[in-house]
Design brief:
The complex is a heterodimer of chains A (333) and B (130).
Chain A lengths: L2 H19 L8 E2 L2 E2 L8 H31 L6 H26 L6 E5 L11 H20 L7 E6 L5 E6 L2 H28 L4 H26 L9 H22 L16 E2 L3 E2 L8 E3 L6 E3 L4 H22 L1
Antiparallel strand pairs in A: 1-2, 4-5, 6-7, 8-9
Chain B lengths: L5 E5 L6 H14 L8 E2 L2 H8 L3 H13 L3 E3 L5 E3 L9 H20 L4 H15 L2
The chains are: A mainly alpha (333), B mainly alpha (130).
C-alpha cells in the first residue's frame, strides 16, 4: 500500500472508531444527547438504536474510504479533506436522526432547578502555575542553547516533513528560522492556557471543567516537547518519530484519565448544566439566549462546547481560530 | 459565614428568577445564616451558575442593598452589613395582609385547611425569627 494512502486512511479510521464509541462517552441519563431514564441505554430499544447508529456510521466510513483511496494518489490536495468531510457530515447526520428519535420517543423533561454556592472562595480557582511554568522555562532554555550554538546551525535546515518522512519546508539560519518554531510552541501553549483561563471564568463549576482545565495544562508538555524537538533538529540527531509518539502517548493517558474522572460519580458541589433538550440543536450545538455561560460541558464526549446564542461566544470563537491559525500564517511568511 | 450555603431557583416556576433570588437571599439574611460581614459571590458567578442574565442578579442585589441588607462592591460581589430592624409601616403591613390573603385563598382552593395553614405560618415565622 502506498504511504500516501496509508496516511490518509489512518486518521479516517481513528475518527471512525471514535464515532463508533461516541454515544457511550456521556453522562448517565443522557443518550444520543437526549435526556433519558438512566437505564434506557441498556433496554432493548436503547441497544437497537445504538446498533442502528453504528451500522450507519460504518457505512459512512466505507464511503469515506472509497473516496480516500483514489483521491490520495490522483488529487492529493483533496486526499484527506473531502473524505473527512463526508465522514463527519454523514455520521453527524445519523447522530442527529438518533437524537431526534430518542428525544421525541423516549426523552424525559427534567425540572430546571439551578443551584449555586454562596461561598465566594470558590471563585479563586485558578490555573496551576507550578504545572504550567516548566514548559515555558524549557522553551527559554532551548532558545538560550540555540543562541549559544548559533555557529553550529547549518545555513539551511528542514522544519517540516511530508507523510513520506522527507522534508518539504526549509528554514535558514536567521532569527525567524531558528526561533520561529519555539515562538509557535509558545503561542500554542498560550492558546491552551487562554482557553483554560476562559473556562474558569465563563463556565460552571463541574468535574468536566476540572478535567478539561487539567487536560489543557498537561497538554503543554507534549506540545512543548514537539516544538523543542523540531527546533533542536539542526543541532542534534533526534529520531523524527519521537515527537508524534510522545504526543500520542500523552493524549492516550490524558484521555483515559479524563474518561475515568467524567464517568465517575459527580462531585457533591457540582453546578448542574441546563437540562432541557430544546437547548441542544441537533444534540450537539448549545443555544440558550438566557444563559450567560459561554462554555457549556458537552453532552457527548469530553470537553466543552459554546453557547452559540451568546454574542461573546462568537467573539471568543473567532479569537481562538485566529490564534490557532497564526502559526500556519507565520509558516507561510 | 456563608460557607456551605446555597441558593436554589426553579427556572420552570411562574415566579420570576429575580424574585426567587431576592426571596432566597432574604430568607438567609433574616434568619441570620448570612451574617453581617459575610461576602456574597460576584454577580457574574451567580448568573453563570444559575443560568440567568447578569442584570437579573444585579437587580436582585440592588433590591437587597436598597433594603439595607447588602453593600455592593463595584465589579465584585456584595457584603452583608449590619442593619437596624426598621418598624414596618402601615402601608407595608396592609400590602403583606393582601398578599397573604391571596396566598391563603390559593392554598385553600388547593384543599389545605385553615388549621394546617395556621401551623405552617407559625412555623415559618418562628424559623425566621432570630
Amino acid at each position: 500500500m502506498k504511504l500516501e494512502i496509508l496516511f490518509t486512511i489512518l486518521p479516517l479510521a481513528l475518527v471512525a472508531v471514535i464515532f463508533q464509541f461516541m454515544p457511550l462517552l456521556t453522562r448517565r441519563g443522557i443518550f444520543f444527547s437526549a435526556t433519558v431514564d438512566p437505564e434506557f441505554p441498556q433496554s432493548s430499544d436503547g441497544r437497537r438504536l445504538l446498533r442502528s447508529y453504528r451500522l450507519q456510521a460504518a457505512l459512512w466510513t466505507v464511503l469515506a474510504f472509497a473516496l480516500a483511496v483514489p483521491l490520495a494518489t490522483t488529487r492529493p490536495q483533496f486526499g484527506a479533506t473531502l473524505p473527512a468531510l463526508v465522514l463527519v457530515a454523514g455520521i453527524g447526520f445519523s447522530y442527529w436522526l438518533k437524537f431526534r428519535e430518542v428525544h421525541e420517543r423516549y426523552g424525559l423533561r427534567r425540572p430546571e432547578v439551578r443551584e449555586t454556592s454562596l461561598s465566594p472562595a470558590e471563585e479563586r480557582q485558578s490555573i496551576n502555575l507550578w504545572l504550567v511554568i516548566p514548559p515555558f522555562v524549557a522553551i527559554a532554555a532551548v532558545a538560550i542553547y540555540l543562541n549559544a550554538h548559533w555557529s553550529q546551525i547549518p545555513d539551511q535546515f528542514p522544519v517540516h516533513w511530508g507523510v513520506n518522512g522527507q522534508p518539504n519546508r526549509w528554514a535558514s539560519r536567521d532569527v525567524a528560522g531558528v526561533y520561529g518554531t519555539l515562538l509557535m510552541g509558545t503561542l500554542m501553549d498560550l492558546l491552551c492556557l487562554g482557553f483554560a483561563w476562559a473556562l474558569l471564568r465563563m463556565s460552571r463549576k463541574s468535574t468536566m471543567r476540572y478535567v478539561t482545565v487539567r487536560m489543557l495544562e498537561v497538554l503543554l508538555y507534549p506540545l512543548t516537547f514537539t516544538f523543542i524537538v523540531v527546533s533542536l533538529l539542526p543541532l542534534m540527531r533526534i529520531p523524527l518519530w519521537l515527537a508524534p509518539v510522545v504526543l500520542l502517548a500523552f493524549v492516550a493517558v490524558i484521555f483515559l484519565w479524563s474518561y475515568r474522572k467524567i464517568t465517575a460519580a459527580s462531585a457533591p458541589d457540582e453546578v448542574p448544566e441546563p437540562q432541557n433538550d430544546s437547548y441542544w440543536k441537533a444534540g450537539v450545538f448549545y443555544y440558550n439566549p438566557n444563559d450567560p455561560a459561554i462554555f457549556v460541558s458537552k453532552r457527548v464526549g469530553i470537553g466543552y462546547t459554546m453557547n452559540f446564542a451568546n454574542k461573546m461566544s462568537w467573539v471568543v470563537l473567532v479569537g481562538i481560530l485566529l490564534i490557532a491559525l497564526l502559526p500556519a500564517l507565520l509558516m507561510r511568511k | 459565614m456563608s460557607s456551605g450555603l446555597t441558593l436554589r431557583i426553579d427556572l420552570d416556576s411562574d415566579v420570576p428568577a429575580y424574585r426567587q433570588i431576592v426571596d432566597g437571599l432574604r430568607i438567609l439574611l433574616v434568619n441570620g445564616k448570612l451574617a453581617p460581614g459575610s461576602e456574597l459571590p460576584s454577580v457574574r458567578r451567580i448568573a453563570v451558575d444559575l443560568g440567568v442574565h447578569f442584570n437579573t442578579v444585579a437587580e436582585a442585589y440592588r433590591t437587597l442593598a436598597d433594603e439595607g441588607w447588602l453593600e455592593l462592591r463595584h465589579g465584585r460581589g456584595a457584603t452583608v452589613v449590619e442593619r437596624d430592624a426598621p418598624a414596618a409601616s402601615a402601608g407595608k403591613v396592609t400590602e403583606f395582609r393582601r398578599r397573604l390573603r391571596a396566598l391563603v385563598a390559593e392554598m385553600q382552593s388547593q384543599g389545605a385547611s385553615a388549621a394546617k395553614l395556621s401551623v405552617e405560618l407559625r412555623t415559618a415565622a418562628n424559623e425566621l425569627d432570630v
